[in-house]
Structures are given as C-alpha cells and as structure tokens.
Amino acid sequence: MENEELKENVQEKAEKPAKKNTKKWQEEVDKALAEAEESKRKWYAVTAEYENYRRRTQNQAAQRYNDGRNDVVAALIPIGDNLERALASCQDESTKQGVDMILKAYQKVLEGEGVETIDPTGEAFNADTMEAIMAMPAADGEESGIVKQVYLKGYKKGDKVLRYAQVIVTQ
Fold first, then answer.
1. pTM higher than 0.85 for the full model?
2. Residue 55: its pLDDT value, please?
3. Which of 22, 75, 106, 115 would you call most buried, defined as having the most Cβ atoms within 10 angstroms of its Cβ?
C-alpha cells in the first residue's frame, strides 16, 4: 500500500509542473501560430504586389511597343503625301501607273496597321481631329464652322490621332 501511496504522491507532484509546462508550451505554440499567420499574410501581400507589378510592366511594355509603331507610321505619312502629289503631277501614263501601284501598296500597309484617313470635307469642324489653318467667309446659305476644304488629310489609329487634318473652315 505504501508503494501505491508513494506512486500517487509522485504522480500528483509530476502533474503540477506538467500543468505549468503545458501553459508555457501553449503560449509558445500560440506565439508560433501568430508568427506563422503574420508570415503567411506578408507572403500573400508580397505575392499580390508582385502580380500587380508584373501586369503593370507588361502593360507598359505593350504600350511602348504600340507607341513606337505609331511613331513609325506617323513618320511615313509625308511619304504618302508626296506619292499623291507625284501621281497628280505625272504626265506619262506608265509613270502614273507605277506611282499609283506604289501608292496603293502604301495605303494597304496603312490599312494593315489599322490606320484610318480623316477626310472631313463638308463636316462640322472638330478640334479633336482637325487643325484649322485658314478661315474663309461662308457663302450665302452656308453654315459657319463647316470644313470647306482639306489641305492635308489626317490619320488616326483607333482613338489616337497620328496627324490632324489641316483644313480650311467657313466663318
């Protein structure tokens, strides 16, 4: 019996420190869980930030590429103007036919790039796509602010104007 009492006494003493250790251990576990949750939250935030950065730089690269293409097309537009002038002033039929073929190929390239011509003859003046270079008095029965003549055609690609149409407007 003494042995059993001694065993119970030892177990009671062993349980008291175990309860203290359990509290200490539980606090450490809670602290570790809180740190893990904080690390997980930070990881999610960094991952989301990186995804936003990746998308933003991808969009910027695509925009720069498109802007570069638009700049090249805008630089080629005066060549088309010169081809049209050459076609209008050609005397020889075979030369005229050759220049016309080159002009059509040029226009096909512009079409392939999605470039549209702005030819606003007879329309109301719109400062978003046109540049008034001269004003002339309106004839009887004509409205004011109407494009009378296009001096240089304008070009646009989508919503971006590559060159404003230079026009003569009635006043």
1. no
2. 96
3. 115
